[in-house]
Amino acid sequence: MTRLPTRRAVAAGLLAAAGAGPAWAGACAPDRLGTARILPVGTRGGLQVGLKTYPAALPLGPKEVVLTFDDGPAPGTTPRVLDALACEGVRATFFLIGRNAAAHPALVRRMRDEGHSLACHTWSHPWTMRDLGEAAQIQQVERGFAAISAALGEPDARPGQGGVAPFLRYPGFADTPATNAWAAERDIGVFGCDLWASDWVRMAPDFQLSRMLERLAHAGRGMILLHDIQPQTAAMVPAFLRALKSEGYAVVHMERGSGAAVTVPARAGWSSETEKIIASTRRRRAV
């Protein structure tokens, strides 16, 4: 009897075929994945979206995904991710840490020039905003937006103006009422995600790829969280994009839109996975 290959074996094969080195034009596959459509996301009056944290999702069809990356830019890994996206003609949203943007402005400008959306992931990525006072929470967000704008040569832009989308993602998805209210008053949307590879945990790229594909197969669609500062993710992304192509997924790119957002409510019985993780982490840290 012939044994079917495991998903991890398939992932290892995809990684080998895609190659782990940086991409360049001559190495790109002729049948590019591409960006299937643009999704304008309005944030008037605020927005809270992403099923891991909030009971609302972006309006995606079956097998449609939105790619988002957190924590960059980082010179050792972000260029490899950008190379892979460019090879496949794919656009993504990068939630940047402000101090990283200030340290690597050329990478921020490259993201903009290659059509990606730029968003805020606070100034310094505190372990949780919930340990800060209200003024310090707001300062983390304001300073994060300002650093990205400055990297783009727009030092006078207010949060969410100019080349930076009015999109915010909290470290660890741990939002706060004060910052949510501040963001809503300024028409800034708050983003969680629908699925993740857990790539903040060290793992082999082929295992990460197989895990990501399994979770995506189960979810069927959604906004995906990855981290462009992780070497294992940078090594995985080319194969992941090829797998999306081969398995019939379509990439949707979100950009700032006008008016209020259109969202899809969560299914009955929804609960926040994020809050469970935060509570569990707090208990471990308290021991």
TrEMBL record:
InterPro entries: Glyco_hydro/deAcase_b/a-brl, NODB_dom, Polysacc_deacetylase_ArnD. PROSITE patterns: NODB, PROKAR_LIPOPROTEIN. It comes from the Bacteria. One of its GO terms (molecular function) is hydrolase activity, acting on carbon-nitrogen (but not peptide) bonds. Residues 63-252 form the NodB homology domain. The keyword Signal applies. CDD domains: CE4_NodB_like_6s_7s. Gene3D superfamilies: Glycoside hydrolase/deacetylase. Belongs to the polysaccharide deacetylase family. Is involved in generating a small heat-stable compound (Nod), an acylated oligomer of N-acetylglucosamine, that stimulates mitosis in various plant protoplasts. This is Chitooligosaccharide deacetylase. It comes from Alsobacter sp. KACC 23698.
